[in-house]
Amino acid sequence: DIVMTQTPLSLPVTPGEPASISCRSSQSLVDSDGNTYLCWYLQKPGQSPQFSSSGSETDFTLKISRVEAEDAGFYYCTQSTQLPPTVIQPRTETFLLALAQLLLFLVVQEAA
Fold first, then answer.
1. Where is the Ig-like domain (predicted)?
2. What is the mean pLDDT of the segment spanning 19-45?
3. Which residue in 13, 39, 54, 79 could disulfide with 110, CB within 3.0 to 4.6 Å?
4. Architecture of the structural domain at 4-106
């Protein structure tokens, strides 16, 4: 089975600052044609997941150059090289401290 490892488990950030979440796969998620089977998703509370970005090979990093309040949500990465898609536990939670002391959550899940 492919093992997905996500870091950090917790990261305090403030609006306007950069944020970075990493996801590592125990196997390459790139096929012989160069297709990458890793995706990052953002799921906001009460909303369906939204596609955010993708990576390559075995190491993936989701970078937000300047965090904004609307970036709040659960980010997760998933792989689909093997079925069923791997789900990481525990989910990465990033606490975004907004000016209104709003707690914002970023989560990562594996998908393709």
1. 1-78
2. 81
3. 79
4. Sandwich (2.60)
